[in-house]
Amino acid sequence: MINQKKNILFIGGGIETLPGVHLAKSMGLNVVISDINPKAPCVKFADDFLLSDIYDIKNTLKKAKAFNKKKKINGVICMASDAPLTVATITYELGLPGIPIYSAKLVSDKLLMKDFFKKKGIPIPKYREIFELNDIKKAIDSFGLPLVIKPVDSRGARGVIIISKEKDIEWSYITSKSFSPKKKVLVEQYLSGPQLSTELIVVNGEVFTIGFSDRNYEFLKKYAPYIIENGGDLPSKLKKDEVKLIKDTFETTAKALKINNGVLKGDMVLSNKKPYIIEVAARLSGGYFCSHEIPYNTGVNFVKNAILLAIGEKVEKNNLKIKKNRPVSQRYLFPKPGKVLKIHVPKWIKREKNIVFFDLRIKVGDTIGEIKNHPSRAGVVIATGKDIKKARLLAERVVKEIIIKTKKII
């Protein structure tokens, strides 16, 4: 418990932020939620609410400053909401712990990020900014196929598309660009090899990489040309030296961004035995990675330490030491598109002690669209077991036995 009652501002009140809100409340903190939606899932659990689009930095800052005059804001954080620049701006203006605004700007624009990493010698896939269709053809000539095209300023895999044939260039370009507020896209090499989710916390310049997961892309062909992740597994199947290579690269990235106190999540790939940064985000991860998978796998309460750091409380190094290596497997539900007519969840799922977390985000009457990005996923299960194989089989069994009947909308 915190000795003095403090206020922590969560930028974003979506469903995946709920674990952080509940944890903050259990720590004795007053929770303030800022969101454009007054009915966002976290709002009913908050002590105070600021109505503002989390990506409207100017307005959110205005609301935060006005609130701060009435009740002092002691810390600002975002969890599963990609708004590090909003957080950094508020923390700077209010004199609170946080990452530099310049660093937040870099990680908020994929092109700026890659330009910066290239300048710093951090390994990344070859890339090119795209101004017109001919630029993609030039990239194909230089890098070959397949390529990945993505908006520089979107999130949740929206507009991220694999280009595997030249005939798909025009459609891919138009589609990807439509998801960019700045109307800017880039292409990069698609590097084959194991893909990893990583998450670290920096305390007074000392880096602790806690989260390390093998990402699961078994549906690349099924949902092509969209890149859809289907969960992940911890601990990683990689060898110790490979894990060290990736961690070292990720930690070098955090230092290059001059993050002395804060969190960083990274998407990485090990291609031809070399680690590459795909992209990073200076926030707590979504997908229940930081709130459920990391603590269950490692014994480290990642979110609690991030909250303590945000409000200026001391973070004990001992609380950042990895104490366990329990198997954890996460999988998502992908129902067929259409109107939901029936949902059946077997009773054994709620009784099964090895199911760490289960959440279904749809109900009868909802309409499910084509799977094109991560927000399209209809539910999630996180399971454990004696080993990672048993954990994975249990998670896959849950997905298989849940019946979601839909009717195709013509």
Indicate the topology.
Blueprint: E1 7-11, H1 18-26, E2 30-35, E3 48-51, H2 57-70, E4 73-77, H3 84-94, H4 101-107, H5 110-120, E5 127-130, H6 133-143, E6 147-151, E7 161-163, H7 169-177, E8 185-189, E9 195-203, E10 206-215, E11 232-234, H8 240-256, E12 262-271, E13 274-281, H9 289-298, H10 302-310, E14 328-333, E15 338-344, H11 348-351, E16 355-360, E17 367-368, E18 379-383, H12 388-401, E19 403-407
Parallel strand pairs: 1-2, 1-4, 2-3
Antiparallel strand pairs: 5-8, 6-7, 6-8, 9-10, 9-12, 10-11, 11-14, 12-13, 14-18, 15-17, 15-19, 16-18
Helix pairs in contact: 2-3, 3-4
Task: List its traits.
single chain; 410 residues; globular; alpha+beta; 31% helix; 19 strands; 8-stranded antiparallel β-sheet; 26% strand; 12 helices
